[in-house]
Amino acid sequence: MNHSPQGDEAGLRPLDGLLVADFSRVLAGPLATMTLADLGATVVKVEHPGRGDDTRAWGPPWTATSSSYFESVNRSKYSVALNLADPDQVRLAHELAHRADVVVENFRTGTMERYGLGYADVVQQNPGVVYCSITGFGSGAGAQIPGYDFVVQAVGGLMSITGDPEGEAQKAGVALVDVLTGKDATIGILAALAARRRDGRGRHVEVNLLSSLLGSLVNQISGYLATGESPTRMGNRHPSIAPYEVLRCGEDGRLAVACGNDGQFRRLAAELGLPSLADDERFSTNAARVANRDALVTALEAAMATADAETWEKRLLAAGVSAGRVADVRTAVERADELGLDPTVDVGDGHPRQIAHPIRYSTADPQSEPPVAVRSETTPRPTHPHSMSPPPELDEHGDTIRRWLAADRPEPLPHPSDPARP
């Protein structure tokens, strides 16, 4: 294993010193391992010689060296190409797994075992390993079912509640199930690492796309479990809150408006010049507004026809009502930048900018009275040097990693963004 720093060593990111063997590909697994890399872990991505991760070929859009899809979840990693069917090369994979703090894989159940890389194999040589397996439908009856995000959105119920009620079921605009599963995998890995610090033992972490999706249906699935009735598509409306939808305004504008309680609705009604709506028995409570949604929307849209979406957005926000115009991705990134959220990062080497890691860290200055939160130098944000490196080309670090794996008692492998890396 890499040396795992103890305590608050100055300048370290939260996971500095942690070694991750990444046998995953496509999205869920690579997202989990990139998150660990953003937090400071050293990630070695094992790819198939010749073709690499499937997503290298998923385009357009393309960058100068790969697809933007691949690059979105593979920064700050070493890449080594190993043919696991070759006895000499699989021995290097074994050595990597035996040295790693964390192993992540998303092969079909039984594949890693065939190469002597399953959890039962690795834990014999590496009892402290945190081994994360990501599947489509679990390791039981669904073990051999191939799991792609789009299909899981369909069979997992998400498409049935997405889209216009009069139209077809729709998928989400991004591979949301993969993203959710990748985040669940990260949570499971971090929890297992915390447990290891307590008892010294590793863990086998298992996540699957279907369970992650069902867990994300939250209120929709709890409604089914409570009533036995499946929810249906409602377009942009919320099944349990009103108003909580996109409203027409001006000549052809659209504004998302959300009122989560009666006080917010009262402020909305007042700003629209309709204060009596808040006392109308049809709209005075959330339950009443949900029951009389059509009449409510008619009244709201009639009032909002007097101005455009931008004007109403400013007025409602000033009144303390949550509202926002429907934006494209470019506008969303620009808005985040205007708000000082530092949404993108330059990973260097001429690569396109990437979305930044969303988590910030701060600590209290104990010398101040009272203690004041200050920006931590351990934050994985891109505002300080050497925190991230560009996504690797296939086998870009192959010679380095193969030499490191062949060495007896080598020095710890540094983070790819470290200027002192081999």
From TrEMBL:
This is CoA transferase. Pfam families: CoA_transf_3. Residues 359-422 are annotated as: Disordered. Residues 394-422 have a biased composition (Basic and acidic residues). Keywords: Transferase. The keyword Transferase applies. It comes from Phytoactinopolyspora halotolerans. One of its GO terms (molecular function) is CoA-transferase activity.
